[in-house]
User: Fold Prepilin-type N-terminal cleavage/methylation domain-containing protein from Nitrincola iocasae.
Amino acid sequence: MRSYSALNLVTRLFRPVSGKPTGPQQRIVKMRAQQGFSLTELLVALVISTILLLAASTLLVAGKESWRSQQQLNSAQEIERYSVLQLRRAIRQAQQVNLDSDEQQANLTYLAQDGSRNCLGQEQTAGTEFIDQFRVNDDQLRCNGQALIAGVAELTFTYGADLNDDGRILADEHLPQPHCCIPVRSLRFRLAFSGINADRAPVEYSAALRRN
Assistant:
């Protein structure tokens, strides 16, 4: 009878209860709560947190580098597009190429019309001639000594003249300087860029002067 009563007491002591624990059960719950996490559990949690932080940092850095590379690429493309557009427009609108032009600098003469402006946007008097000078200096495309855009490392010109008088300008008819006696009909210009495009080979473009 005593054994049964003792067993009954132990069963009642450790039996889960639906309500708030009281007496010995409350002391056992408090003891378990005070034990906290073990050292192994803390180390595992620390390792997992470190891995997650490293993964998040790696993704953040990769995303930032990708964005920066895309911005640099967009900037390089804009530099090339602007430079080619400005030079082609200037050549196509020119009346003639001055004889003092050379491989490093093109001196172009224009006859101003109503509303004509030079390469710097300055309005010119109708009926007068003006000259625009294009060259690269200090990594900048310049006109009349003023910087138009940075990021251009090199600019060279060749001047096409119809030496054979056959109505065509062949590859061997492009000279490093304007011909003394035959007017220049077209220009080729070679551009090399700096920055992200520094390793690119120079690119050649061409444009024809306006027909008088």
Q: What stands out?
A: The chain has one domain: 53-208. The helical segments are 2-14, 24-35, 39-93. The mean pLDDT is 84.
